[in-house]
């Protein structure tokens, strides 16, 4: 993936970090390991890498495969409909060849990004989170790549890639969605305060208060009489947000704990999946 840089855009460095770790996670794995199921319903280890290939090929301007005549049950939205043909097209290709394609495609993308003029990263355009500068769009690619890397690593039993720029991006996104989860999905009464105490190297405390029917971030003042506190380790925090684990499993495993209003806390945990 190395290329002589002509710009110093950090978002490109972040992609290199994550994509290199993805390739490392899959290095020298056996044929049957490519068929292992992952936390993404319907997707194997190979399918995860095929998905990442497909997005970057689209960004390189390549035409997608034909749409599928019949969609699998796990395809539930428009984004998934776009992703699945790229995945399906590689289901009969040996995993080591898919990995080689991933390394080649991401190398081309890095070269393209490295040679972009610096001002290109300021240009506002489409992204999954709305109209944003191109560097912020690239941050969504960091987030996506890291989440799928962790899906692969969990399936393979190869932990790694933790506490870097990818996980930071994912945790930031999950923290940013907490007002939506509390205010829109759970919609408790005014005066409700929910604290998310995320433990770990990249942990943080996120406090959301409901005022005039809206949930807003608020400075943390500790747990009070009207506060519900959710204590969650950082891996479980993002896995709940990305729909990789359900609330009941997280609570049963001791990966999440509720203090205060138990019913409210359980409802919040059950409502956290925003990316499915």
Which labels suit this protein?
2 domains, 12% strand, 276 residues, two-stranded antiparallel ribbon, Four Helix Bundle (Hemerythrin (Met), subunit A), single chain, 5-stranded mixed β-sheet, alpha+beta, Nonspecific Lipid-transfer Protein, Chain A
Would you give an account of this structure?
The chain has about 280 residues and is α+β, with helices and mostly antiparallel strands. It has 2 domains: about 150 residues, dinb family like domain (Four Helix Bundle (Hemerythrin (Met), subunit A), Up-down Bundle), CATH 1.20.120.450; about 100 residues, 2-Layer Sandwich (Nonspecific Lipid-transfer Protein, Chain A). The chain is built from 10 helices and 7 strands. The strands form 2 sheets. Strands 5-4-3-6-7 form a 5-stranded mixed β-sheet. A two-stranded antiparallel sheet has the order 1-2. Helix 1 packs antiparallel against helix 4, helix 1 runs parallel beside helix 5 and helix 2 packs across helix 3. The longest helix is centred in the middle third of the chain and has 23 residues. The protein starts with 9 loop residues before the first helix and ends in a 6-residue tail after the last helix.
